[in-house]
Fold this protein.
Amino acid sequence: MSKKYVIVGGVAGGATAAARLRRLDESAEIILLEKGPNVSFANCGLPYYVGGVIENREDLLVMSPEKFHGLFAIDVRVESEVIHVDTQTKTLTIKTAEKNYEENYDALLLSPGAQPLRPPIPGIDQENIVSLRNVPDADRLFALVQQHKVQGKAVVVGGGFIGVEVAENLRTRGLDVTIVEAAPHILAPFDTDMIGQAEAELRQHGIRLILQDGVKEFQRQADGSVEVLLSDGQSLPADFVVLAIGVRPDTAFLQGSSIELTERGHILVDAFMQTSAPDVYAVGDAVMTIDHQTGSRMALPLAGPANRQGRLAADNIAGLKREYHGVQGSSILKVFSLTAAASGKNERTLQKEGLVYGKDYRFTITYPASHAAYYPDSKKFALKMLFRLSDGRVLGAQAVGQEGVDKRIDVLAAVIRQQGTIEDLMDLELSYAPPFSSAKDPVNMAGYVADNIRQGFTDPMRPEELQALQQQDLVRIDVRPPAMYQQGHLPGFVNIPAAKLRTQLAQLDKTRPIIISCQVGMNGYFMERMLKQHGFNARNLMGGFTYAAPVLGKE
């Protein structure tokens, strides 16, 4: 007897599950219910449609109901909202424009997604205060951009991935754009020491950043524009506002069912993506799954995990019994000419989990070249890699730069996924030719630096640590060439080029600690090793002038 599978919600998780189920079971009846007008669309491409990068709106529509039915014989019903689930009788109540009706199921897959947060801020319900979550949202925002693209002003509330992507695309369209972010910096997956370059890139392209501030009120003006009143008293005029302050699971229709939810409405699932109700599975932005590294509960609204969960849930519905191993948070975005990418844990997350810098974990800061430096057009990028001191396990990585960022973070993401260590990074054999990389790839180099720290060959000093030691009797030596030193150096540092430092050891005082700084930390490490073996108490300044100047200033 054939089975009847009902899927609630399309896009990444639901559409993927539907197609997989058909490939596994040709005889099943499969119904896909989507409350919006589009069953499968490229929601990650929406900001780029608004910005004109994606010119054809139809390119956003990955799969139409007709095409889905033709390829997979799936009964796709758009504009069909599930308003109640009865897991005892295995029935759904479905609302359409014409009627309400019931549908039964043998197995149910929930992929309802999430809705943009719209907190109860006074004035938030104005028509020109919009979010960007689906194609109709993109149509509304596109129309606002067309209306105001000549000397128009836009305020983006929220400096996460969507907020930054929308801001860039609005600015590309010629609008005056301001981002308002309540946190100390934009892009929460990144640590403060890594995101300054991206913030500078936004400012250089004319986007105003207001950090550590929130919206108090939206005031409608006589001409239909909005006055955005901030908590600190600032007032921002805007022709329209884009809300990008996060999402919440779209699971109100599950209230009163036997499907267990968290306090915030996320659907609880086990390792097989099954809910607390028999024959009911859930995937995507609405589920609470697990952190791959710690096993603790975690929700992560990203397209990649949703797709994997959809395929895996379909396998389990079909009886294959495949286990989901959780999420780790790999992400990437474009910020004008820069790429910013991250995977795994950042420092804030580790500290929230109780880990202590210097005791439980350390990190490396390197500035490698995107490919061999002698080959034309090589560009340096910033790479941060966090690792556990006890066993060298790689915990997280972040990178920002113009080239070479994506593939290095992807390699590190794979190592993190496999619970790899810094020794694994050193042992990786990666493809090399001068136009593409270096013989010692930046990922290998991060492993080498981490191993040097773990073996005690070096103990890099963080800029904040040096800042706290300003009153102590330290010798501060900048080992860069004189021309670089004269262009700007850290306060209190004297210039002794690395090539001459060996010849001046007799003039140095072995009773005083020596702090070495170079441009990015590499030559400083070489000099630290030399000085230590000559009996000096020397430490290298982490990341050199490049990393320390934003904290310590420069002269």
User: Anything to note?
Assistant: The longest strand covers residues 381-388.
